[in-house]
Amino acid sequence: RTGIPFKLYHMGIAELEQNQMYSKKLTDNDKKRLDTLIQFAEENKREYTAVLYYMKAHGIKLEQECIGIL
Fold it and tell me: In whole angstroms, what separates CA 39 from the centre of its chain?
């Protein structure tokens, strides 16, 4: 929608695994939006597709603001 080419910034699968204690469960709305994002990511061959699948498989989301990035 915005045309902004989003990229991963310290928020890959490793960060999700390391900070799982701070994660939240996906809501029904999150799951719907995640499916839409996955479809977009696959169609456009985005580098973050695997991260989206990880989030879906584990039913979690993580706010970048709640983890320390150095």
Answer: 13
pLDDT recorded at residue 68: 67
Rounded CA-CA distance 8/36 in Å is 18
Q: So what's the pLDDT on residue 3?
A: 80
For residue 55, count CB atoms less than 10 angstroms from its CB and return exposed for 0-12, middle for 13-18, buried for 19 or more: buried
What's the predicted TM-score (pTM) here? Answer: 0.83
CA 24, chain centre distance (Å):
12
SS3 percent helix, strand, coil of the chain, rounded to 5, is 55, 5, 40
Return the domain boundaries, the chain. Answer: 13-64
